[in-house]
Structures are given as C-alpha cells and as structure tokens.
C-alpha cells in the first residue's frame, strides 16, 4: 500500500510539472541585439540561451527576423541597442520623495531628451540633501525602426529597450566590482565599447565603431581608444590626476588579452581581464553560442537589465503588460486548481487512514475489554474486599477491648424503634475506611412514616437528639429529601411507585463504654 508521504511527493511532483509546463511559454524570450552593423537574435528559456542567429541590417536580415517571429509567435522580445547616438548625463538634483521626485525627474528628462521618445532616468543614490541621477536616451530611433516595424506586423509583445553599456551592471555585481570606479572595456559586433562605472552606476560610455578602425593591428587601435577615454575622464574630473585607472577587460573571445602591451603608459592603469572560460562558467552560456561573435554575452545579460533603464515608451509596453498579466492569471488559476485537487486528495487519504486507525483501536479496545472481564471473574470485587477489610478491622477493635458488638447494635435498634414514625431497615457494624485503630461505627438505615418532608426531617432530628442524649455521636449521612443547602444529597428523590423516598442513613459512634 502506498504511504501518505510517498503519495504527497508524487502529487507535488505532478503539480510542479504541470505548473512548469503552464509557465514555460512565459519563460521563453527572444533577445535581440541591434547595432548599425546588424543584429543578433537569440532564443532563451529562463536564463539559458538556446539559439543564436546573426542578422544583417538589410532586407535579407529583416526577412530572416520575420521568419523567426513566425516560428515563435507570441513570445516577448527584449532589445539591446548598441549605438554611438546615445546620451548619458549625470546630474545632481534636490532630494525629494514620492510624487514630487517622479515629477521632477520626468520634467528634467523631457527637457534634456525632448527630441526622442526612447529615454529613461536611473537614480544613483543620495548625497546629503541632494541626489544623483543618470539621464540616458537613444538619439537615433531610426536605428530601431525597421526591426520594430517587423515586430508590430506580428503584434509581438516588447518587454523593453536597453542601451548596451547598462547590461554590464549585473556582471560587475557577480564579479564583486560594483562598489568602486572602473573602466569596462568589451568588444562588440559594432566595435569597442568603453563604459565608466562609479559605485555601480554608469557615468559615461563611448563606442569606437569597428568600421572606423584603420586596417592593421586592431589591438593597437583599441589601446589608443582606452588611452583617449582616460584622458577624457581626466578632463571631466571624473578621474584624479595621478590616480591609476582600473580597467576591467571583458574578453569572451580571448582575443584582447594582449591589449595592455600597446598602452603608452602602463603605470596609469590597473589591469584586470575576465576571459572566456570564466564568463562561460559564471553565466552558464553554451560554448558553441560564442564561437564567432561576442554578442552572446550581451544577450545573456539582457534579461537582467535594470527595469528603471528601460527606454521603451509607455504606450509600447502595454501589449507586453497584457501578455504578462494573461499568463499570470492562467498560472494563478492552475495553481489554485492544483492546490484544491491536492487538498482534496490529501483529505481523502487522511480520512482513509483515520478510519483504519479507528478500526484498529476498536479491535484493541474489544480485546482489552474481554481480558478485563476474564480478570474480573478471577478477582473479587473491590467493594467486597473493602467490606471484608472493614469487618476485619472492626473485629480487631472489639477483640482488643473485649466488647460485644451485639449490645451496641441492640441499643441502636431500640432507640430507633422507640422513636415514633421510624422503622429501622438495616444495621451495618464496620470500622471507618482508612482510619486504622479507630472505633467501629454503626450505619443505621431506616424509613419514615410521614406525609411531607418537613415532618420527616423533624423526626430525624428527634432521633439524632435521642442518640446524643444516650452518649452516641450521630451524624446524618444520606437523605434524599434534605432541605438544607449545606447537606449532602444522595439517592433517588422518589420511589418507583411515585411516592416520596423518605429513607435516611445515620452514622453512629459510641461515646462511652456500657455501664460507665
């Protein structure tokens, strides 16, 4: 028989697989890298790349892009743009909060980048009573226009548009380099990308286009671009004179490691290289997707781009928002349904196990009851044992004092019978339970001839007074119709024939020896 734990594990696994299948279309992404040279398209599932295709920036490339969208209809698209027509500007504004902060930054963003709808602002942190912001935008929207036209033709949802330099922020966090100031150098299809980061925020960026490089040794020309960037940082006072510039070389193709040898002044740099093996291991990129192009690295980092740096205008984000909400509703409904099914099955299994336990407990109880009956047949009842013990204690007391119990019983009977309306019915002579060595007591049970409880009570009080006058200690121990609140009530209030039950019981102790 399957156990409850095994059934629960199997059910959770089944529901997890169903949820994964339902969420699988939402986890699929199309990642597009666009530059003036061309584009690269990758299909991603979660955080892993599955395919990588190079698309030229002409009609043939757009037709290929159209074919890929037909094969992956409805899959959302993330776009990275690598262009020299970009603006990065850092400004310090008064520190505000809430709606005032949003309105202030939006107004400043419209003022700086009024000529393009592809713009965004990212906060770089507070500095006393002020706050630094990075305003960025794409000043040449026509670079994106052919690719967006194909996307609109297929009504493909667009998640966002990001500038290529911002994609390196998650990589710097993984390398634990996000707290200092550094110049990041990486080779793209469009050319050599140089981005200056300060405390994790992008301060400035340059792109040395590949078609502007003169034929010859590219590493020497790349080194000159690095030196030119260092001089620009000194001129902008982003780098102090005499301070060495930390350079992080991102080299997914292992083709740039000798660049440092061509720098005119190596003392002005602190060089750090991140090679192909480290990048593939850190990001989990298949090696065959980065054989002929470094764009696979950017496309892998694209889904981790900061949401605040999304340049896509709000009106173009609406289809993606509806797409995500639709899948969220479907997944939520499937989750609720699965949870209900799991709960119903769990309750059914629990009820079945409870029934089994109940049957087992009943069988054990029946066996215990049968055993108790067998043992009880062999052992005398407890009341019989107690009565015998009390009789033994009473006899020992009498034997030690050479006293005849018959005389006490007769005295008690005569006093009761001499009382008007009292009929003795039973006399019991025994030692009190739990009081070894105490004198035995006599329990008198009698019935009354009376028409009402008050008269019966008066006769009982008269009998008690008679016993006390004769030297006995008398105490009423049971009377069903006792009208005193502090008295103990015991027995039935009525006889089976319907009349009042006027039976009572007295506990009597002798006060002195006879004849004294």
Structural class: alpha+beta
Gyration radius, rounded: 51 Å
The major β-sheet equals: 5 strands, mixed
Give the overall average pLDDT. 81
What gross morphology would you assign?
A: rod-shaped
Beta-strand content bin:
25-35%
How many helices? The count is: 12
Would you report the number of β strands? 17
Q: Could you name the ranges where pLDDT drops below 50 across 5 or more consecutive residues?
A: 18-25, 483-493
The strand order across the widest sheet is 3-2-1-4-8
Helix content estimate: 40-55%
Describe this structure in words.
The protein is α+β, with helices and mostly antiparallel strands and about 525 residues long. It has helices at about 5-25, 60-70, 100-110, 145-155, 170-175, 220-235, 275-285, 295-300, 315-380, 380-400, 405-415, 455-470; strands spanning about 30-35, 40-45, 50-55, 75-80, 85-95, 120-125, 130-140, 160-165, 180-185, 190-200, 200-210, 245-250, 270-275, 420-430, 440-450, 470-480, 505-510. It has a five-stranded mixed β-sheet, with helices on both faces. The longest helix is centred in the C-terminal third of the chain and has 65 residues, at about 315-380.
List keywords for this structure.
516 residues; five-stranded mixed beta sheet; rod-shaped
